[in-house]
């Protein structure tokens, strides 16, 4: 396909630092003695444990079931014994703990019986989605949204394009790059299944031009599948944040996702390359999602590279395996240097969304007190959503949240480009997150008070009604009483009359 | 290497406010050198005086407002204000004129509004206009370019004139001063002399005023350097110069007797200084792309209108301040279309 590429406004050319972690093939992280598995590793409701302490589990055995619609299952990454189901520290910026299942591995790494699908093309979309959900697959690009939901376009939509996002635009991260280089065929397995389930007319595999080896590996694998028609590899320019869902859609198709809508509204479904690979494993091999490729890199990592790591493996062990110069409890970054977050603590486990662990960045943002905004507008010129960060900042700072919404605060994707270029070094994204949280809290409060008011009003109305009904009943009773009294009197009078008449006659 | 920031992004570009201000100062060096060549060393005395006053006033205000002195004094914004004001006022201005203007710029126009980033008006231009309104005589006694001067001043003479109002040889400002080209143009048009004859006088050069055209050219070059370095955007200067050019072209076509040629307008007075160094002040200017075009065009149009029909020979300062007032309105109505916005 030779359709010219479109472009998104703003963005940054960042140094990639990718070579640091792409010099060695993907390695397997050694099996840890203990695997800590948070019940919530995805967006939505936490999974419900289906094992109890003391249970023996096999590799790939389901240990927690999906709870509600937006939820996925969780599986034992290796064989062993469940030793605890309790609160553990999780890799979350809040530093809070959350319910986890802890498995002590037995070293056997013994698989549960697997049920590969012989021919997925005979399966219905519904059956495929069910397997994907049961396999615990979530978006592996970082957000962790349950993938089966994005596999369901609904009856009102047709899928024009299935877009596979291989941009990986954040510096340092290379897990998708290495996956494409080494397992292109596995990715295409998943792509075929996704396409079948979505009935997508065409498929676009979008890859940034700083990954020539991944591109050629994917091209080679694609050439070997002549039956995969209307499928093309689109090489896109390397520019941050081109891997953002909205941005990659704009670059590849020229279309924009409506502000209050989803990509499916314009006939596009996008998935991460790693997710496609996981789908292929789940359907063709019967393997649930129990591991992922994690990039371990940074200036302090001696053997930076990509590691296929079981979920639950303590990050500290992974860092040790990569020979990281690091003090215990020294902070590290989970995710990329632009959108990842800062963590410290040694017992934190690798989860489904852990794409990169970064220890030591070059050109690190120095800690300086920000100067006032001088309205230079550099932030606006790099904003991929064409927002005016300087105005958003002004109003966020003043807590004028209505105005921030006038300036489309919720279209901010928090890519951090504005922070990066700000000459006053203002932490703009932090202000925007603060404003968003405040607005959401206010809305929740309002809903709560609305609910309370409604409840109060309906109670008032009910009491009013009951009072009226009571009065009505009393009135009716009184009336009935009065009527019967009058009747009795009448009868008595009639009786008296007849008696009188009888008296007269006699 | 330890991490410094606790929230993403953890990377940062190299851009700093101080760096921008330093580049602005650097970009003015050639034009200031040209001013020294054409008007003598008085220009440098003026700039030094303004710089010292500005930095002292800035420090004092920061202390009074209980703000950290070091980060704010080193941001360079006070220095930029001082130099802009110093090159805008006549080189032989008495010392108290410069000091008054700078003090008013820094204390009133900047710090009383909240300091760096919060001033709605361009501080240098506020200072300039205060001086222009309060001391019209001093503000209009410019030096003639050296080649036209009867008594070219040396450094010590300039120093004496600025600080005591008289040289040891008995020279006073009146005896050495002369009108600016724009001033001469305005006065003589008022006497019904045709512009085409006016520009034949010694005061005028090839494009604009003699000397002034070179100063403007060097300011233009400095501005191009700032554009190249990304310190300023092209929108304001281009919109301003284009508007000025179009308007003056129209008059030179249809009413050639009311003002000079387009080139005279572009290369005389404060045109280039205004276009690249004053109207581009981000704090008091418009912050959206479309807004910058409107802002620049407004400054250009008002400058032209004031030059022709106003009471002053030049109008850049007033034009900038008037447009500063409109900035909130311009910004509100020139918001860019946000990604995914549904058409209304």
Give the averaged pLDDT of chain B, no decimals: 88
On the 0-100 scale, what is the average pLDDT of chain A? 91
Order of helices and strands of chain A: EEEEEEEEHHEHHEHEHEHEEHEEEHHHHH
Number of domains of chain B: 1
Please tell me about this protein's structure:
The complex is a heterodimer of chains A (506) and B (344). Chain A is an alpha/beta fold. Chain A contains 13 helices and 17 strands. In chain A, 36% of the residues lie in helices and 16% in strands. In chain A, the strands form 4 sheets. In chain A, strands 1-14-13-17-15-16 form a 6-stranded mixed beta sheet, with helices on both faces. In chain A, strands 2-8-7-4 form a 4-stranded antiparallel beta sheet, with no helix packed on it. Chain A has a 4-stranded parallel beta sheet with strand order 11-10-9-12, sandwiched between helices. In chain A, helix 1 (125-134) crosses helix 4, helix 4 crosses helix 7 (273-285) and helix 10 (389-397) packs across helix 13. Chain B has one domain. The radius of gyration of chain B is 21 Å and the shape is globular. Chains A and B meet through helix 9 and helix 12 of A and helix 1 of B.
Spell out the blueprint of helices and strands.
The complex is a heterodimer of chains A (506) and B (344).
Chain A: E1 27-28, E2 34-38, E3 48-49, E4 56-57, E5 62-65, E6 74-75, E7 80-89, E8 97-105, H1 125-134, H2 147-150, E9 161-166, H3 175-182, H4 184-198, E10 202-208, H5 212-223, E11 231-236, H6 245-253, E12 268-272, H7 273-285, E13 291-297, E14 305-310, H8 315-321, E15 332-334, E16 341-343, E17 356-358, H9 378-382, H10 389-397, H11 401-406, H12 417-421, H13 428-505
Parallel strand pairs in A: 1-14, 9-10, 9-12, 10-11, 13-17
Antiparallel strand pairs in A: 2-8, 3-5, 4-7, 5-6, 7-8, 13-14, 15-16, 15-17
Helix pairs in contact in A: 1-4, 3-5, 4-7, 10-13
Chain B: H1 17-39, H2 42-64, H3 69-73, H4 77-88, H5 95-110, H6 123-134, H7 136-140, H8 155-164, H9 173-176, H10 181-190, H11 195-198, H12 212-229, H13 235-254, H14 262-266, H15 271-278, H16 289-309, H17 316-333
Helix pairs in contact in B: 1-4, 1-12, 2-4, 2-5, 4-5, 4-6, 5-6, 6-17, 12-15, 13-15, 13-16, 16-17
